[in-house]
Amino acid sequence: MIGLLTNVALVALMVQGSAGAQAPAAATSEPAAVPEVEESDIATLPTMSDHLAFVMSAWGNGTRLINGDTGKMLATIHTIPLSNVAIDPRRRFVYVAESIWTKGNRGTRQDMVSIYDARTLKLLHEIPLPGRLLTGNRVQNLAISADGNLAYIYDMTPAAALHVVDLARRRLVSSVEIPGCALAFAGAGGAVASLCGDGTLATIRLDGRRKAVVTSSEPFFDADNDPIFDNSVVDRSTGKAFFLSYSGLIYETMIGPGGGAMQKPWSIQEAGGMARGSTAPLTSGWLPGGRQLLSYHSATGRLFVLMHLGEFWSHKADGTELWVLDAGTRKLIARRALKDPITYMQVTQDDKPLLFLAGKGKMIVLDATTYEEKHGLEEIGAGMISVSGR
Predict the structure, then answer these.
(1) Residue 190 phi, psi (nearest 5)
(2) Which residue, 84, 101, 255, 380, has fewest beta-carbon neighbours within 10 Å?
(3) Does domain 45-387 have CATH number 3.30.230.10?
(4) Extents of the domains making up the chain
């Protein structure tokens, strides 16, 4: 052991002697560089405009903010899989309905609505929830009222229910059981609706004492033979709602405190001069398909639908064509082939609207009037799309 220590010490002396034999560094009059001091700041986003869109990753982490005018990504919010994102109608906040576990994939489960500042994306508050249904690719698990005061979160713990959250006071107001019904379609006047398995539409509103009043429509669709797409659309400012069936039938109604009668359905295929979509097996034709496949531009009354060639029950197939229909005249006014299959779509609500379309990790931005491609984005992720005003 003593010999080993002596050898180590000898090596150290040799190294020192070798270093000392080196020529001294040349003298310089330059002062030593002083490292720059890091300064922390918070970047501020531009005011939320009509042409900004949040795009969720379908199964990964993160929701990206895209500028449709420049085709650039501006920011990212950390969101876990199966979250839902919605924008405050007055563009002050971004809301995320999410569920987390204290140990990642296990531990204590926490369900909440997280509130972010729309300019800095700083987390402002978390509102605890008694539960939240975890199911992906459905915009209507979270809905915001037209005035921005209430949030509606669909849940099933174990009974189907809607949680009503006061966003101004940042607290849960009520949990309303809706047996046999699902989803949240925010309409006018603080009303919200859910689709029910018996073919009806349940409308929920809170009275002056914040007590829930639930009314049901007459049955209007057959859930077993021609179901309704859960990503149907409602213009929450007017309450005008469009429910699209797997075969291509459009059901129109009004969602509001007074409700509204369901109109006789019309066929988007017949609107284009074709035969009505068939529910018969082994019958091929043009059918709607995708995850977020229907969008509505309220000022022009135009409906945008993703379509594909297939048989009934191919409703999850991506769109290969974009169909544009006039909801007033119930006529097909445009058909455009898509370069790549599209799964998700959303239209902005301004007077120069843009269409955001995503699928297979790609996104394209189209002029919603001329259908000219404005931008293409690669590796951006493909998931549900939220725009301000919708």
Answers:
(1) 80, 5
(2) 101
(3) no
(4) 45-387
